[in-house]
Amino acid sequence: xxxxxxxxxxxxxxxxxxxxxxxxxxxxxxxxxxxxxxxxxxxxxxxxxxxxxxxxxxxxxxxxxxxxxxxxxxxxxxxxxxxxxxxxxxxxxxxxxxxxxxxxxxxxxxxxxxxxxxxxxxxxxxxxxxxxxxxxxxxxxxxxxxxxxxxxxxxxxxxxxxxxxxxxxxxxxxxxxxxxxxxxxxxxxxxxxxxxxxxxxxxxxxxxxxxxxxxxxxxxx
Length: 221
What we know:
Layout: E1 2-8, E2 19-24, E3 32-37, E4 45-48, E5 52-58, H1 70-79, H2 83-92, E6 98-105, E7 111-118, E8 123-127, H3 149-157, H4 165-172, E9 183-190, E10 195-200, E11 212-215
Antiparallel strand pairs: 1-9, 2-3, 3-4, 4-5, 5-6, 6-7, 7-8, 9-10, 10-11
């Protein structure tokens, strides 16, 4: 029931000196956390109290200045309580540019999904219980960019037949998941305990092994 996320990208390097986690407790909808920067209210990764996580990875080939799916990610955090909920919401609101949305369900379905849109209405769907992934790798999808898929799968295969939270911590910070010089944020979400293990980039130093604990439920009133 654990999920790991690595976020790479040089564009916001300076902002990541001011990384923060924003907790939302809405009157309607599910309490959730968005990882963002001080002074901003949106981010590319979030997780809600249902242990549903969502992030967007814009494909490298997308046109400069593309919009982003931050509004969709926020909607997912409010309303998705399972992987299937999230998948249907993404399909109903596909962005008009090439991008990937990765969803994880760390409590009920215990698996992940990767939805990659080509910006022209085409959609590639991948679920981590299909084909070349063994059932013991449930909840892990790193390969959001096709160029990294083979290398990432080789790494994951090395942890079979089981993947522990400690192994996910190491995997999140290792190449190719974490791109040297570009790695801004690494997170491991434990869907049962609702603990988040976090590491952020500081100055020119990449994010490392996520080991700073954030107890989601302890933050609730």
